[in-house]
Write a structure and sequence with these properties.
Layout: E1 9-10, H1 16-24, H2 30-35, E2 40-41, H3 45-55, H4 68-71, H5 73-80
Parallel strand pairs: 1-2
Length: 81
Amino acid sequence: MAELDPGGIDVVVAGREAFAAALASENHTLKRALTDPHLFSGIGNAYSDEILHEARLSPVLLTQRMKPKRSGDYTKRRRKR
């Protein structure tokens, strides 16, 4: 089964630094990065929409253009729930 795992980080247990590093590892739109199973495990289309809405981020913002503080907005909001 391990050979079928695309290798994305588990967002439930990942810290802010790991999340930001995964996000910055590619230059994609936020929407594409969040739904890429090689970057993040378990985030699909619906969850990515919720994440972007809750963090008040544009889905077309490029990950390489994000300010470091903004990449942690999702992890802060996730912990509030």
